[in-house]
Write a structure and sequence with these properties.
Four Helix Bundle (Hemerythrin (Met), subunit A), Rossmann fold, alpha/beta, 4-stranded mixed β-sheet, 2 domains
Length: about 325
């Protein structure tokens, strides 16, 4: 007979102390006149610690973006908008500030889009309005995306496309929240998302807060779960969507798309129109950021691309705040922007 020491303990249920209120947009990133400064929740320390990072210069915001203290295409766009407002309040050179911010994350088109939105009115009020609009877009697209879910859906998601990544409600995770609230979602499989574990650290944390049933899986487990009939759809966000519908997202999304197609499962991309880049014809023109090899191995040579591109023909639908869009994306997306 096994002794008590031989029997593995059941996973602990989240305590009331750990299940906190839903994140508000200002919890994720905000502007404060006192300083002035941009204050953001340091995502590098989640889920174990909730620490705010105060950025009192554009250089500090650039470093926060590059080092993934704040990440997710819409969220870094909002952070950049606040940073430009801070630069204006400090009397900094706005052209130089905008150039530094634009270069901090080359794959995410929302960054440049947000800076363009701020060009003629670099004020805190305009940045806050942009932040509010981004959150409302997420709520709208989440409602549209929930229409794609059948009762009892078991969804798989990759990386983090929740409130942390969007400055508020969330794009792909927002869709999961809306589906859960409508009684359509049974559970979520959360890819841990190599190499920086945004899924197991950030998405799982947000789902825990929302009370949505979920389980973290290693990235390489997705295929076997699909083959076993335990996945009904894949839902992801996007960092840039080309004019033809090719979509850049966290590395590993392309693999999921191929697997989903093989198992006859739909892959849905949920993202705001600020992520659609009609000036980029196809995914081949999307710049792919390569991160430091040391993040993977301090000893061996390594390649560390942060994103990959999923061809449009592997995407079942692209959902924006304006609705559900289908192929041919060159026509359906062009009508949006």
């Amino acid at each position: 007979m096994p002794t008590p020491e031989d029997v593995p303990a059941l996973p602990a249920r989240p305590s009331e102390a750990r299940v906190k209120r839903a994140l508000e947009p200002e919890d994720i990133v905000r502007y404060e006149e006192d300083g002035p400064k941009v204050v953001l929740l340091d995502q590098r320390l989640l889920p174990d610690e909730e620490v705010e990072l105060e950025c009192r210069s554009v250089a500090a915001v650039v470093e926060a973006i590059r080092e993934l203290a704040i990440r997710g295409a819409p969220a870094i766009g909002v952070a950049a908008a606040y940073a430009l407002a801070m630069a204006a309040a400090r009397g900094d050179d706005l052209g130089e500030a905008a150039a530094l911010l634009a270069a901090s994350r080359p794959t995410a088109v929302n960054l440049v889009w947000a800076l363009e939105q701020m060009r003629d009115d670099p004020t805190p009020a305009r940045a806050r309005a942009l932040h509010h609009e981004e959150v409302e877009r997420c709520r709208a697209m989440a409602a549209h995306a929930a229409e794609l879910f059948a009762p009892g859906t078991r969804a798989l998601t990759h990386c983090n496309a929740g409130g942390l990544a969007t400055g508020g409600y969330g794009s792909a995770v927002g869709a999961l929240r809306a589906a859960w609230e409508q009684g359509l979602l049974e559970r979520v499989w959360v890819d841990e998302t190599r190499p920086l574990l945004q899924g197991s650290r950030l998405t799982a944390w947000e789902l825990e807060i929302a009370g949505i049933p979920h389980a973290v899986i290693v990235d390489s487990a997705a295929a076997s779960l699909m083959a076993a009939g335990e996945v009904d759809c894949v839902v992801t966000g996007a960092d840039r969507i080309a004019a033809n519908g090719d979509t850049a997202n966290k590395i590993g999304t392309y693999s999921l798309a191929v697997l989903a197609a093989h198992h006859d499962l739909p892959l849905f991309v949920v993202a705001p129109t600020s992520t659609v880049d009609l000036a980029t014809p196809t995914g081949a023109e999307i710049p792919i950021e390569e991160r430091a090899p040391e993040e993977l191995s301090a000893r061996f040579p390594a390649r560390n691309p942060a994103f990959d591109v999923t061809p449009a023909n592997l995407i079942g639908a692209i959902v924006t705040e304006h609705g559900v869009h289908r192929t041919p994306y060159a026509q359906s997306l062009a009508a949006l922007v």
